[in-house]
Amino acid sequence: MKTIRRSMIAMLLFSLLLLAALPVSAQVSLSDIETNWAKEHIESLVSKGIVNGYPDKTFRPDRPVTRAEFAKMMTAAFTFEESRAVSFKDIASHWARRPILTLAEAEVVEGYPDGTFKPDNHITRAEVVSMLVRTLKLHDVKGYTQTPSFTDVSTSHWAFANIETALRLKILPPYVRGEFRPTYAANRAETAAMIDSAMQLQMTRGTLDYLEANTRTLGVRTDAGPRDFTLMADTVVFRNTSTVPLENVVVGDAVYVVADRFGSPQFVKTNGVITQQDVASKVTGITRGLLSPNDLRYIIQGDWAALGDSLKSNIYDELVERGVTPVEAGAIMSQDWASLQVYGRDRLAQVIASQLGVTTDLAFALLEQDWEQARELAQAEAVQQLLGQFLLEENV
Hints:
By secondary structure, this protein is α+β, with helices and mostly antiparallel strands. The protein is built from 15 helices and seven strands. Strands 3-2-1-6-7-4-5 form a seven-stranded mixed β-sheet. The radius of gyration is 27 Å and the shape is elongated.
């Protein structure tokens, strides 16, 4: 009898070990996802306890997801650091109150102007993507493309940059092509797939240890040890507040690399001491590419010979139209401040501001080569230009 009992116990232990060794997909039994395009993503999240099936062993992949449900999924999938105190007047007794507040306190979600969160509203595709991109700390990386990938998401759309970033990171559903349909309610299959894809990305934080711009390689010193990266030709490099050429990055910068699941860097964000190149890149962005950083440097240095004849002619003509005599205009163009004193510099600042589409204060800071003030003014102007648009758009 004891031998039989021992045999049964041994068989039971063997069965348990065998079950534990089975693939995740074999352990998850949902009756309605076998042929679904997001099957592997769904099974992955179910196995981790991030999403659940229903009591009838279905997942209902086409069912729309609410804002509260998505908040619950996100807090189960990622770890967030709270940075502010937030409250919404419509979630006091809601079952998802804590997940919603966690995302809001981490600045991943925003409420509506009336102080509500609307937790039971269906979450849209644009909202899902924006929350994921904010979670990945890439929501401030903008301006690296002005060519829309989707016919229904123009550059003026509030989620344009986030959608383009999600596309580059390959976290969008594979069938989302041509049209994005940003206001469509995201379903359970889509949200599971995007969360699982975002979780597979590789993030590295540290300090820039070395840089070889000609081979597009850089080394990052991390708490876990050194990491080397070779950037692709289209890897987005972002320093302080602007997209920049790789050579603008400075050794010693704090660096954050986001690579795809295969380890290929897609975004490199660095922060460090503000340089002249930073200011030039910011002003170039504000003027929507009217001037390149080199053009801006030529203006600052007064190197009109290197600047395009067309731009020089436009500035000269506008000076004359503003009442400056041809002699004065010539002196201003040559930056002969000794002859014209402050008057000429003020006039040139006004004209450059008009040509660039920026304020006179910013143009004057550039002429003075006051990079710290110029950077702050450029940042403020960028925010001001976007503020009107953002206030009219739906908040996430």
